[in-house]
Specification:
CATH superfamily of chain A: MetI-like
CATH architecture of chain B: Orthogonal Bundle
CATH class of chain B: Mainly Alpha
Order of helices and strands of chain A: HHEEHHHHHHHHHHHHH
Oligomer: heterodimer
Low-confidence stretches of chain B: 1-9
Structural class of chain A: mainly alpha
Mean pLDDT of chain B: 84
Shape of chain A: flat
Strand content of chain B: under 5%
CATH topology of chain A: MetI-like fold
Mean pLDDT of chain A: 87
Strand order of the largest sheet of chain A: 1-2
CATH topology of chain B: MetI-like fold
Low-confidence stretches of chain A: none
Number of strands of chain B: 0
Helix content of chain B: over 70%
Number of strands of chain A: 2
Largest sheet of chain A: 2 strands, antiparallel
Number of domains of chain B: 1
Shape of chain B: globular
CATH superfamily of chain B: MetI-like
Number of helices of chain A: 15
CATH architecture of chain A: Orthogonal Bundle
Helix content of chain A: over 70%
Order of helices and strands of chain B: HHHHHHHHHHHHHH
Number of domains of chain A: 1
Chain lengths: 304, 288
């Protein structure tokens, strides 16, 4: 009892002694709590209500979730599409970032800067990915159709942007093209900071080639960057939505490229069914967090 | 070329064949990645007949500046003067970036260099927030902004951006590289925390705040603000430009000029500041 009291006093003393820290943190934390923490809480709260902004929210229990998973076929489709997109773009984009960063690491600084720019550029070039709508265009002006027609492989142009068979694949291709973003830069930087003497020691101890070196020395050395890159790539791949809308319009034909984010925007900003939209957001939140936690565990096994 | 090979060969465990194979592979991938962007550049300078040529041609034959001239005259015709859109974007960028750098760095400084109860809890929440994207919070954010009465004001764009967690995270991780002994000796000389922060830490972490500036610039540059700003007078440049390309097939030429310009700006900013960004990213890693 006495001990816990002393501990409490100690805590108070430490808070008082560092009072200025809280002052420095205040402006940032006020914004962080208002626009990141509070929205997550609100979202979870509203997901159990019917709320259309005009009338006060009405508590309806799990009804929104029941509707989502039992009655909303389009949501199930969007969930499936999102998972397919993430399963492809997440790991492929991540591995590409890692492999290219690793290859680039051994170039001379000037060449390295050129290659980094070339590979990073698609992720920051704004609406440049719209060029793919021209490549895949369904009339004969589409490059891919043009080439296929000319070679005689097909007779009539393929409607890439409206044929449900191809749409998801096109989203995946475009997203992989744009996938070397912040995580990639983190890898590039990480490879440059590895202590060179580790390699010399490694070869003395019996490492034979660049592959063993990669697994036993390089990857464990940049594990913190690997974790950071994974977070960036998971958040990006689950948050996909704008690529689909820009390429195929909204909604896409038969909802073939409809993602959770598209569904969320539909209910939140068009239909103003905020309660339902919040339930979708909560599902997305849980999906992103669990994918992150899972991948963090996997990466923990690197180099073992 | 000789120099490159020498550099590649300078480490153990490498074969010349492997190095050349990797180099060629890298070049091929680089070309594939850049190709769509080369096409954008080439299209921006194409005259009308080449834009609609069949079969389409990749490179421009008779480069012209017509598309840019048309863009200029189109922008001159808009009901809200183009300078207004431009000033909106400048205002949003400058205010947001300045406020974010100061507020986030101050928070990063105490989170990294001071020890106080609750510090780890706050930082874990920030790391956790990196793990979900803005779409999760977009709907409640709109509700909060409307309750605050900020809808259709600049603040609806500016304030949430100031709270960007990636910026704070990178700043805090980079401050790890500032040696504690330096701060300790300043403290012995009687410097206050604010002085230490402003005079010692901030100059050392210059690469980090340059990176934050670039990242915010990129996100604001791409912003249309169309869900929180409704007055034409308040909208940023990107919105106005989006309206121009939405004109469909008749605007193909102008559209390709616009796409080129919108791509050019963030890309050139990145090329100029690349070494600073890479330096910052070196400390971006997460602990288990």
């Amino acid at each position: 009892m006495k001990k816990s009291l002393a501990k409490k006093n100690g805590l108070f003393a430490r808070i008082l002694k560092n009072a200025d820290c809280y002052l420095y943190l205040l402006p940032y934390c006020a914004i962080f709590f208002t626009f990141t923490v509070l929205p997550v809480c609100i979202s979870i709260f509203f997901s159990f209500t019917y709320y259309d902004v005009l009338q006060p929210p009405r508590f309806i229990g799990f009804q929104n979730y029941i509707n989502l998973f039992a009655n909303d076929d389009i949501f199930i489709l969007s969930l499936k599409n999102t998972l397919v997109i993430s399963v492809f773009t997440g790991p492929i984009g991540y591995l590409m970032s890692l492999i290219f960063a690793w290859m680039i690491a051994e170039l001379t600084p000037k060449l390295r800067a050129v290659m980094v720019t070339a590979l990073y550029a698609p992720s920051i070039s704004g609406g440049a990915f719209m060029i793919f709508s021209l490549l895949f265009s369904g009339d004969s002006y589409g490059y891919i159709n043009g080439v296929l027609l000319k070679l005689g492989i097909i007779r009539t142009p393929i409607q890439f942007l409206t044929d449900t068979k191809y749409m998801l694949a096109i989203v995946i291709v475009v997203m992989i093209w744009m996938s070397m973003g912040t995580g990639f830069l983190s890898f590039v930087a990480g490879f440059q900071t590895i202590d060179r003497t580790l390699y010399e020691a490694g070869y003395v101890e019996g490492i034979k080639n660049r592959w063993q070196e990669l697994w036993f020395i390089t990857l464990p050395s940049i594990k913190p960057q690997l974790l950071f890159g994974a977070v960036m790539s998971i958040t990006g791949s689950f948050g996909a939505g704008s690529v689909s809308t820009s390429l195929f319009g909204f909604p896409s034909t038969d909802y073939a490229a409809h993602t959770i984010v598209n569904h969320l925007e539909d209910y939140g900003t068009t239909r103003f069914e905020m309660g339902y939209a919040c339930a979708i957001a909560t599902v997305l939140f849980v999906l992103m967090l669990s994918a992150n936690k899972l991948v963090q565990k996997l990466i923990g096994k690197v180099g073992m | 070329m000789v120099k490159i090979r020498w550099n590649l060969k300078s480490r153990p465990g490498r074969t010349l064949g492997g190095n050349i194979a990797i180099f060629i592979f890298l070049c091929l991938v680089g070309i594939v990645m850049v190709l769509p962007m080369v096409y954008i550049v080439s299209s921006a300078f194409k005259p009308l007949d080449e834009l609609f040529m069949f079969p389409p041609r990749f490179f421009v034959r008779n480069p012209t500046l017509d598309n840019f001239k048309n863009l200029g005259s189109l922008l001159g015709e808009s009901s809200v003067p183009i300078s207004r859109y431009f000033m909106n974007t400048i205002f949003l960028t400058v205010v947001t970036t300045a406020a974010h750098i100061i507020i986030a760095s101050l928070a990063a400084y105490v989170l990294e260099k001071r020890d106080f109860p609750g510090k780890n809890a706050i930082f874990s929440m920030i790391v956790l927030s990196l793990m979900f994207s803005g779409s999760v919070t977009s709907i409640p954010n709109y509700i909060i902004l409307s309750k605050l009465g900020w809808i259709n004001t600049y603040w609806a764009v500016v304030i949430p951006q100031i709270g960007s967690t990636l910026g704070l995270y990178l700043m805090k991780q980079f401050m790890c590289t500032v040696p504690d002994s330096l701060l300790e000796s300043a403290r012995i000389d009687g410097a206050s925390d604010l002085t230490i922060f402003w005079r010692i830490v901030m100059p050392i972490v210059k690469p980090a705040w340059l990176t934050l500036i670039i990242m915010l610039f990129q996100s604001i540059w791409g912003l249309t603000g169309s869900n929180v700003l409704f007055d034409e007078q308040l909208k940023p440049l990107n919105y106005a430009i989006g309206q121009i390309i939405s004109g469909g097939i008749s605007r193909t030429g102008v559209g390709s000029a616009v796409t080129f310009l919108m791509m050019l700006v963030p890309l050139s900013v990145f090329i100029i500041t690349q070494s600073n960004i890479i330096e910052t990213m070196a400390s971006s890693g997460m602990k288990d």
